[in-house]
Sequence to fold (366 residues):
Amino acid sequence: MTQIPLVDLQAQYRTIKPEIDAAIQQVIDTTDFILGHAVGEFEAAFADYCQAAFAIGLNSGTDALCLALRAVGVGPGDKVITTPHTFIATAEAITMCGAVPVFVDIDPVTYNIDPALVEDAVTSKTKALLPVHLYGQPADMDPLLEIAQRHNIRVIEDAAQAHGALYKGHRVGTLGNAACFSFYPGKNLGAYGDAGAVTTNDPDVAQEIRLLRNHGRAAKYEHDRVGFNNRMDGIQGAVLKVKLKHLDTWNEKRAKIAAMYTELLGDSVETPTVPDWAVSSWHLYVIRVEQRDRLFERLRKAGIGVGIHYPIPLHLQPAYTDLGHKEGDFPHAEAAAKSILSLPMYPELSDSQIEIIVEAVKQSRN
Ligand SMILES: Cc1ncc(COP(=O)(O)O)c(C=O)c1O
Fold:
């Protein structure tokens, strides 16, 4: 039986094995295991790639969000506006700062936070907006930045899924006060373990995150803050530096795969819509169907790796019952959670594999 995974990290490793092996070996040879040269070089290259003044290498995207929020002053008693249709880490980071997530429904076409609904959610306690560039598609930042400016609130981008995506011609990563990236292995730019980064043009934010990631340390045993251990490992920096050189080519392949899916699927299912001001990084290719669970099962049985990103909106998660939400509070997010399905998406996916997947989707719809 055909087996096509949702993501194939082995296929990618095979295309870059000599470069990766040499980069990892160098970290071992120099025993530069935490931060160090490889991380420093990756930070410089990634800042350059994102057209940002600074990139700070961290241990995960979740901690990138935590440190970015703290660095712009989010703390206990504050509220942060975000989307309920995202991975839980987005909201967790807010909670971990002692602040409270305030959810705003999504635009049902782009799946990103609906800027038209944000203003009504702003109060005197709102300290930041945390839009997510979900599936690689940039959130509509201009109206969000305008609201933020009027109310003097900070904007942090959750760019965990959007390495290389463009908003009105600008790379995501410098649209707000800071942007947070995940390098979880399955991401467009994935490490060989957990890793993340913050990009920013603000030197104070960069400096604060550098302190916080390393025990608040100004010198080896001199601590300006009570900080954390959120440093990036040398091996992750080395892997990411190698992979960053391939990111644009991989993203172009993802875009071609997405275009082929959209063409072949036709109107058999609802295919993704990208606004004309956006260039998606196509982290995920998400279709929308009635009877989603039936399609999910049939594709899974046909050997096709499928996913649901994400099946339970955050306001209905058991972890967030204390926020007091109920079914019906964010109808677009709830409807999306019931009808979305992610098809296999990775740069090494072949045309024939795409044809097999599309055929299986069409067959399973009958
Ligand atoms: C939208 C979003 N935000 C945050 C994260 C957290 O990143 P990490 O898994 O690196 O902690 C992820 C990834 O898992 C994500 O998809």
Q: What stands out?
A: The chain has a mean pLDDT of 97. DSSP finds eleven helices and 14 strands in the chain. Residues 9-104+111-244 form a domain with the Aspartate Aminotransferase; domain 2 fold (CATH 3.40.640.10).
